[in-house]
Recover the amino acids of this structure.
């Protein structure tokens, strides 16, 4: 039986008060999960043992870590000190248990085996099967970049944008399948872009849900594609991933409301799908070079 990670379950396993957790690809056979594991005080004891499950865990160090110990299938080994960007991955079927160093900051990627195979099939990859494990730490710049991208999302109090989280999950899956599973593209016609009708459907759906939190699965369903195929096809057609296009459209909608009405910035933020006014201000300033309040003063007719 597949276990869906929850913040409480992950925190309990690693003996933490909190382990903020975000789920992605929730319409797959089992979701991919991202959790932040952060201990700022001395860690006492081992992580709690869990029943074996058909899933894999990738741990990416975000800060230096002291040496520790690991028990995999009951066999003991030492774990060397780690640098930021080092990764460790484990087959959870072997019920690994760890003795971690005094303090640590880790981004944990949880990947069910069934979802690994499902998304590989959707991408036109050969069956992945098992993954190459490394419990002694190795540098992986791609995994490190993905972990840094998810770090702020996992820490945020507001619900993260589903399109962004799903895109990171698909990128994580593709990297794992090819780098640790040795999967190769099968040659199936999965590299084509969206047909014109599919692009219109996707863009219309996004426009109609600017104030919501659409997912990759929502858009893929509109286009009658798998989520992984849709994500690649949209990027090839539009030149950017869906979450970035969504953010651009939200900014354009915010500019329209700033020009034409007297809504408060907090109201505009909610109407355009931003978590709060500060989220609107950060995104707006990054793309327009000034905050929404100043932009309104400069552009009101």
């Amino acid at each position: 039986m597949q276990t869906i990670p929850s913040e409480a379950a992950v925190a309990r396993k690693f003996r933490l008060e909190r382990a903020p957790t975000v789920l992605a690809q929730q319409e797959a056979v089992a979701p991919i999960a991202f959790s932040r594991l952060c201990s700022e005080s001395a860690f006492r004891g081992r992580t709690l043992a869990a029943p074996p499950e058909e899933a894999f865990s990738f741990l990416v160090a975000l800060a230096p870590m002291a040496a520790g110990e690991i028990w995999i299938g009951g066999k003991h080994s030492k774990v060397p000190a780690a640098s930021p960007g080092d990764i460790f991955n484990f087959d959870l079927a072997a019920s690994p248990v760890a003795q971690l160093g005094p303090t640590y900051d880790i981004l944990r990627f949880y990947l069910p085996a069934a979802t690994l195979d499902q998304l590989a099939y959707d991408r036109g990859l050969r069956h992945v099967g098992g993954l190459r494990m490394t419990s002694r730490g190795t540098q992986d710049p791609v995994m490190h970049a993905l972990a840094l991208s998810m770090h702020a999302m996992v820490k945020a109090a507001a619900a993260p944008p589903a399109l962004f989280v799903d895109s990171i999950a698909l990128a994580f899956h593709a990297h794992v399948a090819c780098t640790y599973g040795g999967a190769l593209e099968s040659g199936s016609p999965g590299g084509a872009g969206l047909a014109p009708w599919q692009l219109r459907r996707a863009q219309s759906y996004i426009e109609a849900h600017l104030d919501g939190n659409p997912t990759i699965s929502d858009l893929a369903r509109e286009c009658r594609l798998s989520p992984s195929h849709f994500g690649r096809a949209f990027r090839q057609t539009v030149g950017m991933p869906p979450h970035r296009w969504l953010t651009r459209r939200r900014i354009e909608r915010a500019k329209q409301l700033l020009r034409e009405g007297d809504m408060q910035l907090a109201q505009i933020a909610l109407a355009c799908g931003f978590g709060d006014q500060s989220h609107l201000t950060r995104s707006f300033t990054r793309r327009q070079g000034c905050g929404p309040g100043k932009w309104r003063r400069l552009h009101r007719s």
